[in-house]
Write a structure and sequence with these properties.
Number of strands: 16
Shape: extended
Organism: Pleurodeles waltl (Iberian ribbed newt)
Number of helices: 50
Low-confidence stretches: 1-31, 124-134, 147-171, 255-294, 391-407, 665-669, 990-1002
GO molecular function: protein dimerization activity
Oligomer: single chain
Helix content: 40-55%
Protein name: TTF-type domain-containing protein
InterPro entries: HATC_C_dom, RNaseH-like_sf, Znf_C17orf113, Znf_TTF
Strand order of the largest sheet: 11-10-9-12-13
Pfam family, one: Dimer_Tnp_hAT
């Protein structure tokens, strides 16, 4: 109510067209028509309203704001007239409201208040016609009410924003500390330091700074270093944070020492020691949290009755008694459960029994809950069992029915039988959940659940009659995937930095799928996890952006919260996409859209894709390499489309005592290593292919002409030299590609690996490679043959001249490969990519003075790029700790320990004297350089969703992918947690009664 009064007062001061909160009405006589008059209280709701009485005329209403700018008011009126400029004699609220929301009045108001901006929704409302304006009047009022609380939902400065306080600057509200906040949060304190703006602090966290920092996810505590965001939301967020609750618990365990009077209000200190009774979040005092709490609720909080033990409860529950211990509050106990404490604890779901340890909740509900609990019933049964010894045996014989003791004994046997039945059912569920996990992990059809269960029943395994169909298999897989997904969420949310990895592909149903993964640091090692598989309707940048944002939400990541280190959760520092222009285009690509919102973001182009594109550039520029590739493609199709030809070629290879290696299409391979493998297969099967083509060429069918054409190309010196030369060139490039596809590869490994590859290629400019030397050893220019001349060898007659070794053409080919590799990876030599090389201690100089000065400029370059993520004190500490890091890593360098293992040990141990520099190390571990993990995910998708299972529902496809990629090995799988999750779901657990998590389509 106080805030509404302030807003209303400011509206009166500024002349804003407010919405009346009072709608006065007076009775109308049934016989005499009411004469409407101007109501004085209207000026409270509309301060711009003026009543003028001219002699000889009826009194009329005028608008004070529109009278200042009559030309604007008339020009913005639809009819060219303005009733509140010329005078309105319709003394009704409807006329005032119509003028209030009119375009003319709004234009005059903005002219009178030039510092304000109309929200987008209000602009649209002003453009509506009169009919729609009436329907949208409620929308405008809601937008105006929301604007009085702060900025508009669209994020722009609202025109009502400055009206909430008179102290405004260019339309922006200046928030200040509210004194009434201390009533709800007694630990809150405001401190003003000279030369700095005032900040809010937490007295409890200041008393335990080490505990507060250690329990913060980002190792920062805003209310420990000072918070200048004077809003209720940061206070409530800190109140519920793990660091604050831990400090409060520690403070309470110290028996409420001298801090009671300053930190805890009234008599709440005794409540804080209980589970949800931390300051400000007590479940018994939630109404005192907000300054907007009604007076009635505050009165209830202050006059709430104090519950005590009622004596008449013992008449209803004879086993109940009250026990008072000195120095503690009185508690209720159960006399029956105290006789059998082990039995009571063992049959309690949580392992605890409130009426065994003492219950201080003096309410009827806890007593009734204990009375109906399984633990209490078991104790009662055992108590009655023992009481049979005191009963007279004649009473039981004379009774017309079974005695109470016999009935209790029978009930005890029934309970024991039910427990045994429960254990049997749990064993059945363990087997059933394991079968479902096996189906998901191996990519088997869900219908195999029936087959597996039938086979196990035949083998004598007791599985019961329920839960053995494909529908229940989908439910079990859903529960198992949710357990794995929850573990992934915990790992991701506890990380400091995160990198998004995304790649696209088409599945067997011809649906564009975008695989989204996230890379974090877990237990000191880089950890890339599967987030989601998102179908795309269009492969445009906005659609891809939405798909990635929705994908990371599966692991509880929000892009808006990852833009700054001050927000809770991890910070997004890098993205790694494939080579598609829509992803990496500098202007309209997805990476550019992300970098516009996050300036310090490091967009990374997958290095393996770049290497592939570099080789394609060489092929497109070289004519004879293009012809060579086209010939290989034709030979591939010649054999691929004819099983008979493949069979004949295998027969020839057996005659030659060689294994026929099927070579794939060199143009269709995605990686450079695949191209090198295709060339190796061609080289291995060359003699077999030549003999088979000669055999087909002698026949008189339609394929003989093509075979003779391919034979003339394959048996040319130009083709053979290109084959062996490309093998020499692609061998170091293929090794580089295989190295970069590793999961634990770091940014500091890329540049040295590329330099090694370029060095090996430089050697090929002037020297023959291993394969070219083999060619010249097998080539005989006098006879023009190629092969072994021994009696058991083979020879091929080649056509064409043999070039010199090495030829100018070969040297130019190597030069082109080096040039395109340098062009594709030139960005790695710029900041901040180059700066991370300072952490590669294998490159550090040996001299003490040189080592001391090494890497300072690069380190400053990294800190300059990520300036917003680190404070000034942290930057100075990082530079100081870099010298300690060099000394610390010297021992690892002596022992020749790999860089990844050395830094993983540091991140795991986390020494306090290197805490700041290790943030950069963790960032380096987080940055991904390859999308190989996304390619592995596509391979798993093709196993799960193949051509016979192309109609899988999206939900179950995601769960199957998650289990296949992130689930433990089959022999390490424990279904206990998944069973608990399934049992806690809604619905009864029988075949037709349990609600399935999702509808299955396969």
């Amino acid at each position: 109510m106080e805030i509404q009064e302030i807003v209303r007062g400011d509206e009166m001061a500024m002349g804003f067209p407010g919405t009346s909160s009072t709608e006065g009405s007076s009775p109308v006589s049934s016989s005499v028509k009411r004469k409407r008059m101007f109501q004085a209280h209207w000026k409270e709701s509309w301060p711009w309203l003026v009543l003028k009485e001219i002699q000889g005329e009826r009194p009329k209403m005028f608008c004070d704001v529109c009278l200042k700018y009559p030309d604007i008011a008339i020009s913005h009126s639809g009819s060219g007239r303005n009733a509140f400029v010329n005078g309105c004699d319709q003394l009704r609220i409807e006329s005032i409201r119509a003028h209030e929301t009119s375009k003319a009045h709004m234009a005059c108001f903005l002219r009178n208040n030039p510092g304000l901006e109309i929200p987008f929704k209000a602009q649209r409302l002003l453009k509506l016609n009169n009919t729609k304006k009436k329907k949208k009047h409620k929308t405008f009022r809601n937008e105006k009410a929301a604007a009085s609380q702060g900025s508009s939902p669209s994020g722009r400065v609202n025109m009502n924003f400055s009206l909430t306080t008179r102290n405004h600057d260019a339309g922006k509200r200046k928030r200040m500390f509210q004194a009434q906040w201390k009533e709800s949060w007694p630990w809150l304190v405001l401190k003003e330091r000279q030369g700095e703006e005032p900040k809010m602090f937490c007295n409890i966290c200041l008393a335990y700074p080490d505990v507060a920092v250690s329990h913060s996810v980002s190792r920062k505590n805003a209310f420990l270093s000072g918070c200048n965001q004077f809003r209720i939301e940061p206070i409530r967020a800190h109140e519920k944070s793990k660091s604050h609750t831990t400090c409060v618990s520690l403070c309470c365990e110290e028996k409420h020492s001298v801090m009671d009077s300053s930190l805890f209000k009234n008599e709440q200190a005794a409540q804080y020691k209980q589970a949800d009774g931390f300051p400000g979040i007590s479940s018994n005092n939630q109404t005192s949290l907000s300054p907007l709490t009604s007076r009635k609720d505050k009165k209830y909080d202050s006059e709430k009755r104090k519950r005590v033990f009622q004596a008449h409860w013992k008449k209803c529950w004879s086993w109940l008694f009250l026990k008072e211990t000195q120095g503690e509050s009185p508690k209720m106990y159960c006399s029956i459960c105290l006789k059998y404490p082990d039995l009571a604890v063992s049959h309690s779901p949580s392992g605890k029994c409130a009426f065994l340890n003492g219950c201080d909740q003096f309410r009827v509900e806890p007593i009734k809950a204990h009375e109906t609990s399984k633990a209490h019933k078991m104790c009662i049964l055992l108590y009655n069992q023992e009481m049979k010894k005191t009963l007279d045996p004649t009473l039981a014989s004379n009774a017309g029915s079974a005695s109470p003791t016999v009935q209790c004994r029978a009930q005890l046997l029934i309970v024991q039988a039910l427990q045994k039945l429960k254990e049997i059912e749990r064993k059945r569920l363990m087997v059933l959940f394991t079968n479902a996990y096996c189906i998901a992990k191996q990519g088997m059809p869900l219908s195999d659940m029936d087959i597996l269960c039938s086979a196990m029943k035949t083998a004598g395994v007791d599985l019961g009659d329920n839960y053995t169909n494909r529908e229940k298999a989908s439910e079990f897989i859903k529960c198992e995937a949710e357990v794995i997904r929850q573990d992934i969420k915990d790992i991701v949310l506890n990380s400091r930095f995160v990198c998004i990895v995304a790649d696209g592909s088409t599945d067997n149903a011809l649906v564009e799928q975008e695989t989204v993964l996230v890379r974090v640091v877990n237990e000191g090692k880089p950890y890339t996890v599967f987030a989601d598989l998102v179908p795309l309707y269009h492969k445009h940048a906005p659609d891809l952006m939405d798909g990635i944002v929705n994908g990371i939400k599966k692991v509880s990541l929000d892009l808006d919260q990852m833009k700054s280190s001050h927000s809770p959760g991890p910070t997004l520092v890098s993205v790694n996409f494939d080579g598609a222009p829509v992803m990496m285009e500098s202007k309209g690509g997805v990476a550019a859209m992300l970098k516009h919102d996050i300036p310090f973001l490091l967009p990374f182009y997958c290095v393996t894709h770049k290497l592939q594109l570099g080789i394609l550039d060489v092929v497109n520029k070289s004519t004879y390499i293009s012809q060579f590739e086209e010939t290989l493609k034709c030979i591939f199709k010649f054999y691929w489309k004819s099983p008979r030809r493949r069979k004949d070629a295998k027969k020839i290879s057996k005659v030659l005592q060689a294994n026929f290696t099927h070579f794939s299409d060199i143009e269709e391979t995605r990686w450079v290593s695949g191209k090198e493998g295709a060339l190796q297969a061609v080289q291995h099967d060359l003699h077999t292919v030549v003999m088979h083509l000669e055999q087909i060429g002698t026949q008189s069918d339609e394929s003989s002409a093509r075979a003779r054409k391919y034979l003339s190309s394959v048996t040319s010196v130009r083709f053979i030299t290109a084959l062996y030369r490309l093998r020499d060139i692609l061998e170091p490039v293929s090794q580089l590609s295989e190295f970069l596809k590793r999961d634990n590869i770091l940014l500091i490994h890329v540049q040295p690996a590329i330099e090694r590859c370029v060095s090996n290629l430089e050697i090929l400019k002037n020297d023959l490679g291993e394969n070219m030397q083999q060619f010249y050893n097998l080539y005989h220019p006098e006879q023009g043959t190629f092969g072994h001349q021994a009696s058991d060898g083979w020879e091929i007659l080649l056509s064409g001249p043999c070039p010199s070794a090495p030829s100018i053409r070969d040297m130019q080919l190597v030069e082109n490969v080096i040039q395109y590799i340098d062009e594709r990876f030139s960005h790695l030599y710029s900041m901040p990519y180059r700066g991370f090389q300072v952490f590669d201690y294998t490159m550090w100089p040996e001299g003490t003075e040189e080592l001391d000065a090494y890497g300072r400029d690069d380190l400053n370059g990294i800190l300059m790029h990520f300036d917003v993520l680190f404070s000034t004190q942290e930057k100075l500490a990082i530079i100081e700790e870099f010298s300690r890091l060099k000394t610390h890593m010297h021992n690892f360098k002596k022992k020749s320990i790999p860089v990844v293992c050395a830094y993983s040990t540091l991140l795991t141990n986390h020494p306090s004297n290197l805490s700041n520099i290790l943030k950069l190390v963790e960032m380096m571990f987080t940055i991904s350089v390859s999308t190989a993990e996304a390619e592995r995910a596509f391979s798993a998708m093709n196993v799960v969703k193949h051509r016979l299972r192309s109609r899988l529902n999206r939900a179950i496809l995601q769960d199957l992918m998650l289990i296949k990629l992130e689930g433990p090995k089959f022999e390490d799988f424990d279904p206990s947690r998944a069973i608990e999750y399934w049992l806690s779901a809604r619905g009864t657990k029988h075949v037709r009664g349990h609600k399935r998590p999702y509808e299955l389509v396969e």
